[in-house]
Amino acid sequence: MLVALLPGDGIGPEVIAEAVRVLDTLEIGGLVFEEAPVGGAAFKAVGHPLPEATLDLAKRADAILFGAVGDPDCDALERHLRPEQAILGLRAELGLYANLRPAATIPALADASALRADIAGDIDLMIVRELNGDVYFGEKGMRATDAGLRQGYDIMSYDEGEVRRIAKTGFETARARRGRLCSVDKANVLETSQLWRDVVTEISADYPDIELSHLYVDNAAMQLVKDPGQFDTIVTGNLFGDILSDLASMCTGSIGMLPSASLDEGGKGLYEPIHGSAPDIAGQGIANPLATILSAAMMLRYSLGLGDAAARIEKAVEVALAAGLRTADLGGKATTREAGDAVIAAL
Length: 347
Prior knowledge:
This protein has helices at about 10-25, 40-45, 50-60, 85-95, 115-120, 160-175, 190-205, 215-225, 240-250, 290-300, 305-320, 335-345, and strands at about 1-10, 30-35, 65-70, 100-105, 125-130, 140-145, 150-155, 180-185, 210-215, 235, 260-265, 270-275. With about 350 residues, the protein is an alpha/beta fold. Helix 1 (about 10-25) runs parallel beside helix 12 (about 335-345) and helix 6 packs across helix 7. The longest helix has 17 residues, at about 160-175. The chain starts with a strand and ends with a helix.
């Protein structure tokens, strides 16, 4: 089982290192790691954020453990050379169309949420986000209006096949959880969203055991803060999913706690924390590695078929937090290394 390690930028290498230490502690036979540069680090090394050698490794690997991309030094580059293009390129080249982002409050962290503990304690949801369409992959550019003004444009679009595919993933995910799926769109304004709602409703006929509801994205954001416990599984498009998953993460206490999986149709996936590269704290040894460690657990479960090992990691994280582990983002003083040590000790 080959795992591609793509640490990337900022705190990426620091948090990936702790996840690898945790995986090594499990002593899983046949698990092999191979590392390659990506993002700003790759651009600085070879002049491109997604080098051919890195893409080749990602294609050969059984799963990919990804750190983060984003480097202020690269902000002035042409868009196709910016670090963020690496993750977009991997999603497109590998057909990673379904992003799973769980958000569940760990009991020991209920008081870390900005929400009241009695509200935050009820959070246990999964956001299924479409990854290969929407404004991120639509036609975009800069142009001049007839009045000579600069105008930027980004085209949002989905075809029914793209919606059908992610809708099925949403229904299957809900079936494996508590049987409730909420589809989020903006059908009162956007034609793209009207198609989305129509197709999701059509697909629901194949899943009579799943309770389907619809929400406009602005209402969904409000409901995530007001009553997040009402949600089981949410399925939505690329842009809305990006925003709502970050909102859900903060409702649980910290963006440094949430993992994610990006899957193709065969179950191969790229696994990454959702917190980004955090260049303001890079190199200080204070980043929270728990989201990356939990991403490694998702990797074991979804791509490598090692559910028992995944559950061991998840339990170890809960035990470490219950024993008082707190990194800076959680109001504590534990270093990145100390957080890894705490999880390993719990294992």
